């Protein structure tokens, strides 16, 4: 990997992990509120979220890095914009669900996130099939998160 590609990868990595750190920053009072909720039996144990999100942010960083290597592709601008939109939606969900303690608005927002992530993967596929496949675990996890959000909204 040449110096330019290495720097590009580091930038992608820092952007994705910064989003992850912001999204995981504890929101005051949310833990107590969350513990009172009726959760789905599919809800993973709390200790699993950190490692899973760490891997997902790494996969997203590699995916967007692969896309940045092909800036001449006509889909590149759309891919980068969509990636940024879904990343912002990803971070925003935490603050809507936990910060505002509002599962209803969070559910609407996560549906937008799902659409943005799917569209990002589709556009990534026009540039790099590997980047598209690297988004798949994230999309699957978002599907689970969407169900868990719905469960909290419906049963609480």
Key traits:
0% strand, elongated, 156 residues, 7 helices, 81% helix, Ferritin, mainly alpha
CATH topology: Ferritin
Main sheet characteristics: none
Poorly predicted ranges:
none
Distance between the termini: 51 Å
In total, the number of strands is 0
What structural class do the secondary elements suggest?
mainly alpha
So what's the overall shape?
elongated
Q: Look at the structure and name the CATH superfamily.
A: TspO/MBR protein
Rg (CA only): 16 Å
Number of helices: 7
Can you tell me the CATH class?
Answer: Mainly Alpha
Please, could you describe this protein's structure?
With 156 residues, the protein is mainly alpha-helical. The protein has a single domain, classed as Up-down Bundle (Ferritin). Helix 4 runs antiparallel to helix 5. The radius of gyration is 16 Å and the shape is elongated. The protein starts with a helix and ends with a helix.
């Amino acid at each position: 990997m040449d110096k330019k590609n290495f720097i590009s990868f580091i930038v992608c990595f820092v952007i994705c992990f910064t989003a992850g750190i912001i999204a995981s920053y504890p929101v005051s009072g949310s833990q107590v509120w969350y513990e009172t909720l009726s959760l789905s039996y599919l809800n993973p144990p709390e200790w699993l979220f950190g490692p899973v999100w760490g891997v997902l942010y790494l996969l997203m960083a590699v995916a967007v890095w692969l896309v940045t290597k092909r800036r001449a592709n006509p889909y590149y601008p759309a891919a980068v914009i969509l990636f940024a939109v879904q990343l912002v939606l990803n971070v925003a969900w935490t603050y809507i669900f936990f910060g505002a303690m509002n599962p209803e608005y969070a559910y609407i927002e996560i549906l937008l996130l799902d659409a943005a992530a799917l569209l990002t993967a589709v556009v990534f596929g026009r540039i790099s099939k590997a980047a598209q496949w690297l988004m798949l675990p994230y999309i699957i996890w978002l599907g689970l998160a969407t169900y868990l959000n719905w469960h909290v909204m419906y049963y609480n």
